[in-house]
Amino acid sequence: MKAWRVNELGEPRDVLRFEEVDDLTADAGQLLVRTLAVPANFPDVLLCRGEYQVKPSLPFTPGVELCGEVVALGEGVTRFAVGDRVVGTANLPGGSFAELAVMDEVNTFPAPATLDDAEASALTIGYQTGWFALHRRTQLLPGETLLVHAAAGGVGSAAVQLGKAAGARVIGVVGGPAKAEYCRALGADLVIDRHTEDFVPIVKEFTGGRGADVVFDPVGGDAYAKSTKCIAFEGRILVIGFAGGTIPTPGLNHALIKNYSIIGLHWGLYKSYNQQAIDDCHVELTRLADAGSIKPLIGERLSLADVPEGLGRLGDGTTVGRLVFTP
């Protein structure tokens, strides 16, 4: 089979090579799938650079998420059959930027019939992260105001749609006019271009001085610091990640004085501590997809040959919407 391989660490454009490798096999509790669609995720860029918390041995194939068709079952797999269309996460070091991938049964879910391959491929990591943040780490209520940073990104775009599905007013902060248009298409009630506008006074004006009830922050740095200036009394700031490159140092005295909560989310830990919660989340996401309340909005559909350039652009911050690669 053919797969994109990282033989040395660096930028995706420089280190990815499309190589012939041995076919994979499914061990006990695993599925072998033919990849139908693979979305680009920022962890894929970090994997190539050697900056992700998971550091597979060289050489490896990146790609953390996919939609695929089951072609073989390992011993003991009972929830799926050959020919099923599935979504979930791939097993590194044999990631999903390849013709075949291996998935653990526990990390595999039925693909919603209402979503095509590209849409379904982007349902797991971003939407599970958004759902756990908004409905488990806190409880976003109808009528509340949700402020989403990097609202045109993978997890941010999911949070926008999940916020609207929950009945919240959603403010999306993005970088650039193209991303602003994409965010409006997601359904955001207000879109702020951070390149030309300061979101703090705009959020205060939009909320009548109250501020945002919930802030969804996958960026960190200045995005977090400024969010503390427009968080509502008894609001909640959700710390999702640090895509901006700077880990903030919270002023806990400010959180005390203003009565807001700082809440962390590491979605991947639920695989170790509460797998049932992940399973239940997929059921809910499927229900929302079937009802038309959420639908991954694919910015670009590219071929598998475009993986290095696509991941390179994602790392540069120049992509708009989800990038999905198909064989």
What is the CA-CA span between the terminal residues? 12 Å
Estimated helix fraction: 25-40%
CATH superfamily of the largest domain: Medium-chain alcohol dehydrogenases, catalytic domain
- The Rg value, from CA coordinates, equals 20 Å
- Helix and strand composition category: alpha/beta
CATH topology of the largest domain: Quinone Oxidoreductase, Chain A, domain 1
Largest sheet: 7 strands, mixed
Number of helices: 12
CATH architecture of the largest domain: Alpha-Beta Complex
| Envelope shape | globular
Order of helices and strands: EHEEHEEEEHHEHEHEHEHEHEHHEHE
Q: Residue ranges: pLDDT <50 for 5 or more in a row?
A: none
Binned strand content? 25-35%
Mean pLDDT: 96
The level 1 CATH classification of the largest domain is: Alpha Beta
- How many domains, as an integer? 2
Would you count the extended β strands for me?
15
